[in-house]
Amino acid sequence: MSQDTGNQAAAETTSEEIPQANSRYVRTLLVVVIGLGVLMVGGAIVVIGTVLSRLNNPETIRVKPGFGETEISIPADAELIGVENGDARIVLRLKDRKGPLLILLDPRKGLEKGRVRLKKE
């Protein structure tokens, strides 16, 4: 029994020697950890959102300059009136026997995007 009482005395002295945590420092540490967690989640959302928006936007896809030679068919009796160019498209203004015609081209790939036939009402 003397051994049991000796262990209890040792246990009591050890618990008294451990300093108690200051609640102010614990609270501050908790706020800092939660704040850093929120910043990490927010940063991950920004990075994922940026990647997805760049993947879904075809204007941001880089294409090598100089796509080579491309042929675009126009009506045989068409006359070129004018050309308007921009970053996203080139517009060829033509006129044939049916009336004015616009051909839209992609300047980065050299492909025809579409045609617009203008008619009077």
Short description:
The chain has 121 residues and is of the alpha+beta class. It has 2 helices and 4 strands; from the N terminus they run ααββββ.
Write the layout of secondary structure elements.
Layout: H1 2-17, H2 23-56, E1 79-85, E2 90-96, E3 99-106, E4 111-117
Antiparallel strand pairs: 1-2, 2-3, 3-4
The computed structural class is: alpha+beta
Oligomerization category of the chains in this entry: single chain
Low-confidence parts lasting 5 or more residues at pLDDT below 50? none
- Structural domains: how many: 2
Distance between the termini: 113 Å
Commentary on this structure:
The chain is built from two helices and four strands; from the N terminus they run ααββββ. With 121 residues, the chain is of the alpha+beta class. The protein folds into two domains: 2-56; 66-121, no CATH class. It has a four-stranded antiparallel beta sheet with strand order 1-2-3-4, with no helix packed on it. Strand 1 and strand 2 (90-96) form a beta hairpin. The protein starts with a helix and ends with a strand.
